[in-house]
Amino acid sequence: MIYLHKEQMLDAVERRYPAKHYVMVDDKLRLLDAMKKIWRAKLTTIFVRQGHYALDMANISAYPAADITVEKIGDLGHCQCLTSFGEK
Prior knowledge:
Elements: H1 10-16, E1 22-26, H2 29-39, E2 43-48, H3 57-61, E3 68-70
Parallel strand pairs: 1-2, 2-3
C-alpha cells in the first residue's frame, strides 16, 4: 500500500490488514509522531537515520524520539528489536 499521506490512511490499513500491533519504519519523525498519536501503544515506531529528512537536525529536534532508532535500513535485518513481533 502506497499513500501520499500515510498518517491519514490508518483506517484503510486496519481494514485491509487487521492486527493487534503495527510497526512503522520511516526517516520522517513528523510522520512517525503523527501516527503514534493516533495508534498510541498499538504502534511501534522505528526511525531510520538515513536520508535527508533523517539528517535534518531542526526537523529531528522538533519531534519526540521514535520507539526505536537504527542508523540505516539494512540494520533492521539483524535488529533484536523485531524478535518481539515474530521476526527472526
